[in-house]
Amino acid sequence: MSDDREAVRAWLSLLAASRGLEKAVDAGFRNNFGHSISRFDVLSALDRAGAQGLRAGALTEKLMVSDGATTQVTAPLVREGLIKRVADPGDGRVAIFSLTKKGEKIFADMAAEHRQWIDEAFARMTPAQMKTLRRLLNQIEPEKIARSKKDAA
Amino acid sequence: MSDDREAVRAWLSLLAASRGLEKAVDAGFRNNFGHSISRFDVLSALDRAGAQGLRAGALTEKLMVSDGATTQVTAPLVREGLIKRVADPGDGRVAIFSLTKKGEKIFADMAAEHRQWIDEAFARMTPAQMKTLRRLLNQIEPEKIARSKKDAA
DNA sequence: GGAAAATATTTTAGATATAAAATAACAAGA
DNA sequence: TCTTGTTATTTTATATCTAAAATATTTTCC
User: Fold this and answer.
1) Across the interface, do B136 and A146 touch by the CB < 8 Å criterion?
2) Domain of A95: which CATH number?
3) Chain A residues in contact with B15 (beta carbon < 8 A)
4) What is the pLDDT of residue A50?
5) What is the pLDDT of residues B37-87, one digit of tens each?
6) Does residue A82 lie in a domain region?
7) Residue-wise pLDDT tens digits, A98-134
8) Chain A: closest CA distance from residue B92 (Å)
C-alpha cells in the first residue's frame, strides 16, 4: 500500500476543500452584500472585539495578513461607514478600528447568511465528524516547514 | 453542548490549516527556488500531462483559476524557459503548454522538497488518520452554497 | 531638553487573482 | 464563399496580497 504519499494526498485534499469553500463563500458575499470575504473577516474580528475596538496591529494579527493589507482592506469599509477609525488619544501612532451601528447590522446579516451556507456545505457530516475533522486539522504543523537554504545567506 | 456551531468551527479550522500550510509552502518555494506556489501548480499539472502537454483551457481547469490567471502565471515560466508554448497545428486558436527539459528538472527538485515539507508538517498524523482526514474533507459540498439573491436580478 | 532608537502605520511597487471586453480563429448554413 | 455565431485565448481594469521603504510618533538615554 502506498502509505508513503498519504501526506501529500491529504494536503491536496485540504487545499481543494479550502479553496472551493472559500471561493463559494466569497462569491456569496459579493453577490448578496457587495463585500469580499476579506472584509467579512475584518467585520468579524471587530465584532468580537466589541466597543473598544482593535488597534491596527492587533487587527493585522487576527487577520493573519500583512500590515499593508489591513490598511487597504479597512479603507473602503471606513469610506462606506461600516467601521470607524480613531486615533488613540494616548499614542498618536496608534489607529483604533471599531464597528459602527451600520457595520454591526450589516455584519449580523452577513454572519447569519454565512452560518447557513456553512451548515449546508457541511450537511453530510455529523457533529462528531466535524469535531474529528477539527482535531485532525489541529495536528498539522506548518511551522515545521524549514525556511532552509536562502536563510543561510 | 453547542453542536449547532460545529460546522462554522470546522470551517474556521479548515481555513486556518490551509492558509497556514499554503503560506509556509509558498514561502519555502520562493526562498529556495524563486517561484510561487502558483507556478509550482502549473509545473505539476504539466508534469502529469507529460510530453503531449495541456491546452490553455485544460490547464485553467486543472488549476481551478480564471483563464486570465493562466495567461499571466505561464508568462514568466515561458520567459524563463521552464515551459514552452506552441500553437496547435490543427487549430490556430489553441495554445499548448508543456514542460521543457529545464522545467522537468526544476519541477523534480521542487516536488522532492515539497514532499519533505508536507511529510514534516503531517508528522504527527498516522497514515490512517490522513486517510480519515481526506474522507472527511471529501464530504464537504461547497457547491451547495446558493448563489441566491443577486442571481434573481 | 534633544538626539537617537524603537514602534505603529501608511505608502509604494510588484505579484497574482477575477471579470469582462477584445481579439482571433474556426464552423456551418445560405 | 460569405456571414454569422461559437469557441479559445489574451488584454484590460480592478481588487487584494506581500515586502520594503517612507512617514510619523513616542521613548530612552545622556
Assistant:
1) no
2) 1.10.10.10
3) 18, 21-22
4) 92
5) 999 999 999 999 999 999 999 999 999 999 899 999 999 999 999 999 999
6) yes
7) 999 999 999 999 999 999 999 999 999 999 999 999 9
8) 33
Domain of residue B71, residue span: 3-146
In the structure grid, which three cell numbers stand for residue A4, read together? 508513503
Does residue A90 lie in a domain region?
yes
Residue A37 inside a domain? The answer is yes
* Domain presence at residue B102: yes
- Which residues touch B19 (CB under 8 Å, ≥6 apart)? A18, A64
SS (H, E, C) B70-130: HHHHHHHHHHCCCEEEEECCCCCCCEEEEECHHHHHHHHHHHHHHHHHHHHHCCCCCHHHH
Q: What are the beta bridge partners of residue A97? A: A54, A85
In this complex, which residue's CA is closest to the C1' atom of nucleotide D25?
Answer: A93
Nucleic strand D within 7 A of Cβ B70: yes
How many domains is chain B partitioned into structurally? Answer: 1
| Residue A32 with chain B: CB contacts under 8 Å | 148-150
